[in-house]
From TrEMBL:
<dbReference type="GO" id="GO:0006508">
    <property type="term" value="P:proteolysis"/>
</dbReference>
<dbReference type="InterPro" id="IPR045569">
    <property type="entry name" value="Metalloprtase-TldD/E_C"/>
</dbReference>
<dbReference type="InterPro" id="IPR035068">
    <property type="entry name" value="TldD/PmbA_N"/>
</dbReference>
<dbReference type="InterPro" id="IPR002510">
    <property type="entry name" value="Metalloprtase-TldD/E_N"/>
</dbReference>
<feature type="domain" description="Metalloprotease TldD/E N-terminal">
    <location>
        <begin position="32"/>
        <end position="96"/>
    </location>
</feature>
<dbReference type="InterPro" id="IPR036059">
    <property type="entry name" value="TldD/PmbA_sf"/>
</dbReference>
<dbReference type="GO" id="GO:0008237">
    <property type="term" value="F:metallopeptidase activity"/>
</dbReference>
<dbReference type="Pfam" id="PF19290">
    <property type="entry name" value="PmbA_TldD_2nd"/>
</dbReference>
<dbReference type="InterPro" id="IPR047657">
    <property type="entry name" value="PmbA"/>
</dbReference>
<dbReference type="InterPro" id="IPR045570">
    <property type="entry name" value="Metalloprtase-TldD/E_cen_dom"/>
</dbReference>
<protein>
    <submittedName>
        <fullName>Peptidase U62, modulator of DNA gyrase</fullName>
    </submittedName>
</protein>
<feature type="domain" description="Metalloprotease TldD/E C-terminal">
    <location>
        <begin position="238"/>
        <end position="445"/>
    </location>
</feature>
<dbReference type="Pfam" id="PF01523">
    <property type="entry name" value="PmbA_TldD_1st"/>
</dbReference>
<comment type="similarity">
    <text>Belongs to the peptidase U62 family.</text>
</comment>
<dbReference type="GO" id="GO:0005829">
    <property type="term" value="C:cytosol"/>
</dbReference>
<dbReference type="Pfam" id="PF19289">
    <property type="entry name" value="PmbA_TldD_3rd"/>
</dbReference>
<feature type="domain" description="Metalloprotease TldD/E central">
    <location>
        <begin position="123"/>
        <end position="230"/>
    </location>
</feature>
Length: 446
């Protein structure tokens, strides 16, 4: 059951990339790369069990970058006729002729191009109708409104079915493309009692339509999470152990991505400068990157420069094993390209073996953080200060919801003071982790 299969676009898009590369060669450029993607999909949103929007989308464009003796020019076109493609190539070349030379510009090295291109099981087309997406969105809302008398408002549900095709080629002779699919469902609940209103949500996402969690479960979880937040209060300013829920733990590790990205390193705008092979986390803690996991949401055989991805330790027994480098940042730093143009691939955090609920009990007295707000993270210094909400725990038991507080620390200290990572991982993003327990953090409250 999604939109018509997008894989029929693969051959024509490869042909378009070939036309661009062949024409670039005739212009005498020192290198060229062409990327093209097309997306199509269907989204349905409902509110209070009534259809609010139905959206079909189909779009895409070809982008080309040319290099001429260290000078770089880029252009794009959504018209894939041969004449339009050649015009875009010429435009990129004209730009390259007027830009300043940068000795670090250029394609990734030919020896790094991906040669092993396995089927990663990313594409599962289904013909999902608007009626079907409407059905599951309303099922989620119905379940949401049937959980707790204090949750009688749905702030909407959204069901989506999308597929895409991507092709990349360059003048090293690399030319490859693949298709992928993604299906998702989310539901937002609003609750109210004498102390005010709260809202929360839940969602599911999968490569296969049939692998999404049941809509009734998503609705019930959204309502249960919302109801649990009603009656939130401040706590006195203090210092306590903090347990980040899996969703928030993912964001906490996202700051590590920014701090060890090549761009941050060569700009000297990271608190982890010169940190490779130094202890950043406890010695039991590791992060493994697994780009070739079949069917995972962040799998890829090559990056956006055609460089082959590979399994690697990002953190090895607490020590930072590598920076995340593109061809440009690697040259700038005099290091080896790690194939991270375009992002990261399925980071899996090691676990200390407990479930999230067991970590709540082990924490004793502390704070569970389920939401953070604001932009108070300085990746240059590592200073961390964000608004937060969650639950106060005493003797391993959740006593009441907490809101309008601020949690603060420094990412270096926070990373080194991680006590445990739960084994029940959230697999809905490129960082796969369970809840993360911190030894202690400063908490500003009443």
């Amino acid at each position: 059951m999604s939109s018509p299969s997008i894989d029929i676009e693969l051959v024509p898009l490869k042909d378009a990339v070939s036309i661009a590369l062949e024409y670039a060669k005739t212009l005498g450029t020192s290198g060229a790369e062409v990327a093209i993607s097309k997306q199509q999909g269907l989204s349905v949103s409902t509110r209070m069990k009534e259809v609010e929007t139905v959206e079909f989308n189909k779009d895409g464009a070809l982008g080309i970058t040319l290099f001429r003796d260290g000078c770089k020019g880029s252009s794009s076109t959504s018209d894939l006729s041969p004449a339009a493609i050649k015009q875009a190539v010429k435009a990129a070349d004209d730009i390259a002729r007027f830009t300043s030379a940068d000795p670090f510009n250029g394609l990734a090295e030919k020896s790094l191009m991906a040669t092993d291109l396995p089927d990663l099981d990313l594409y599962h087309p289904e013909t999902v109708s608007p009626e079907e997406l409407t059905r599951i969105a309303i099922l989620a809302e119905e379940a949401c409104l049937d959980v707790d008398d204090r949750v009688q408002i749905s702030d909407g549900a959204s069901a989506n079915a999308h597929s895409s095709v991507k092709v990349y080629g360059n003048s090293h002779g690399f030319l490859h493309g693949y298709c992928s699919s993604r299906y998702s469902l989310s539901c937002v609940a609003i609750g109210e009692n004498d102390n005010g209103m709260q809202r929360d949500y839940d969602y599911t996402v999968a490569r296969k339509y049939a692998d999404m969690l049941a809509p009734e479960l998503i609705g019930r979880k959204a309502a249960t999470k919302t109801a649990s937040r009603l009656g939130g209060r401040k706590i006195p300013t203090t210092e306590l152990p903090v347990l980040f829920s899996p969703e928030i733990a993912t964001g906490l590790m996202g700051h590590l991505v920014g701090a060890i990205s090549g761009g941050s390193i060569y700009r000297k705008s990271s608190f982890l400068l010169d940190a490779v092979d130094t202890q950043v986390f406890p010695d039991w803690f590791s992060i493994e990157e697994q780009p070739l996991l079949k069917g995972a949401l962040a799998s890829a055989a090559y990056d956006s420069e055609g460089v082959g991805t590979q399994e690697r330790k990002i953190i090895d027994n607490g020590r930072l094993a590598t920076y995340l480098l593109t061809s440009y940042s690697a040259r700038k730093l005099g290091l080896t390209n790690t194939g991270h143009a375009g992002g990261i691939y399925n980071w899996t955090l090691s676990s200390t073996g407990q479930t999230f609920d067991q970590l709540v009990q082990e924490m004793g007295t502390g704070l569970i953080v389920t939401e953070v707000m604001g932009q108070g993270v300085n990746t240059v210094t590592g200073d961390y200060s964000r608004g937060a909400a969650g639950f106060y725990v005493e003797n391993g038991v959740i006593l009441y919801p907490v809101e309008e507080i601020t949690i603060a620390g420094n990412l270096k200290d926070m990373y080194s003071n991680i006590v445990a990572v739960a084994k029940d991982r959230d697999l809905r993003s490129s960082i796969r982790t369970g809840g993360i327990l911190m030894d202690k953090m400063k908490i500003a409250g009443s």
